[in-house]
Specification:
Elements lengths: L1 E4 L6 E3 L6 E3 L9 E8 L4 E6 L4 E8 L1 E4 L6 E3 L3 E5 L4 E5 L4 E8 L9 E2 L2
Antiparallel strand pairs: 1-9, 1-12, 2-3, 4-11, 5-10, 6-9, 6-11, 7-8, 7-10
Length: 118
C-alpha cells in the first residue's frame, strides 16, 4: 500500500488560454480503466479483500482508515490517494463517512504524477 497526495498544494497553476486554476494530475493509462465513485456512510466499510487489478482510491470528502496486508490502519483524508497492487489484500473503513473515486486498471503508475505522502 502506498499513499500519495493530490491536494491543491500538490498541483500546478494553469494560466494558458486566460485560465486561472490549479491542476493536480493523478494518472494516465494506455490500457482501459474503470472509474467509479464510492459513498461510505457512517461506520461504512469496504471489506478486506484482494485487489483483482491495481487500484487507486482518491479520497474526495470525509476521512477514513485504510490498510494493506498489515493489521494496522492508516488515516486518510481528502487530497490523498491510496494505491494497492494487483492481488494485494486491503480494507477501507470510516467512522463518519467518506466519498472516494476509485480507478482500476491493469496499468496504473501513480508515482508518474503524484508525490508520496510524507
Amino acid at each position: 500500500m502506498k499513499i500519495y497526495k493530490f491536494d491543491k498544494e500538490s498541483g500546478n497553476k494553469i494560466n494558458k488560454f486566460d485560465s486561472d486554476f490549479v491542476m493536480s494530475r493523478i494518472i494516465q493509462t494506455e490500457k482501459s480503466a474503470r472509474v467509479g465513485c464510492m459513498y461510505l456512510e457512517k461506520n461504512g466499510i469496504i471489506g478486506y479483500h484482494q485487489a483483482t487489478v491495481p487500484q487507486l482510491l482518491l479520497i474526495m470528502n470525509g476521512e477514513g482508515y485504510v490498510r494493506g496486508q498489515e493489521e494496522e490502519f492508516v488515516k486518510v483524508q481528502p487530497g490523498e490517494a491510496v494505491f494497492w497492487e494487483k492481488d494485494e489484500w486491503h480494507e477501507t473503513r470510516t467512522d463518519n463517512g467518506l466519498t472516494a473515486i476509485v480507478i482500476e486498471s491493469e496499468e496504473l503508475n501513480p508515482s508518474m504524477f503524484m508525490k508520496m505522502r510524507e
